[in-house]
Write a structure and sequence with these properties.
With about 140 residues, the protein is an all-alpha fold. It has helices at about 1-10, 20-45, 50, 65-85, 85-105, 110-130, 135-145. The radius of gyration is 16 Å and the shape is globular. The N and C termini lie close together (about 10 Å).
Length: about 140
Amino acid sequence: MQLLAEFWKKHIYKAAGTRGTDISALILRLVFGLSMLYGHGIAKFNGFSKMSAGFPDPLGIGSPLSLALTVGAEFFCAIAVTIGLATRYTVIPLLIAMLVAALVFHAADPFAKKELAIVYLGAYAAIGLLGSGRYSVDAWLAGRK
């Protein structure tokens, strides 16, 4: 158990910064995690069976798999980011989803159509670099002995 705690402290949760940095990380996680969950993830999760056949497949992997990966990012990873659980890892699927949305799905669209995906992309990159901060499940797990 001690080995797991040390791994968590070293790789998943890095020591918290200043109070302002920790509060900034919390605000970013709450705003962008909950916005993704409420604005995108819940609808896709609840409508999975109805959406799976006709969901966009920009990567050519099939509509059901594209939707499953999107739900994994926009629902499950958004929850994890919001509560600050393995934040540096759970932003990766969100970053990939937003890259695909901005650069593949909306590639030919005007900037206004890409803008939201780009904003989310920037926010998730910042969250990934900041980490979860002191006010998170990661911090709580790192503090347990």
